[in-house]
Amino acid sequence: MTLKIISAEKIEFEGTVDSVTLPGALGSFQVLKGHAALISSLVPGTMTYVLENGESEKREIAGGVADINSNVVSVCLY
Description:
The protein is 0% helix and 71% strand. The chain has no helices and eight strands. Strands 1, 2, 3, 4, 5, 6, 7 and 8 form an eight-stranded mixed beta sheet that branches. The chain starts with a strand and ends with a strand.
């Protein structure tokens, strides 16, 4: 699936990942390939994503919005 991390200035990351874990307003949640369509607000916390080669990347975020649809995860950061 494709992950896009977008800030007000630019696309900070766009690539293929195996999973994404996000700090949602109602708790942390994981997105895998084939996930149902979803829009969620994000709170300050750690976003983790696993690349195709198995490497895990972590990033602290201040909040934002996640849009999951058709195996594309778009994370718009504040």
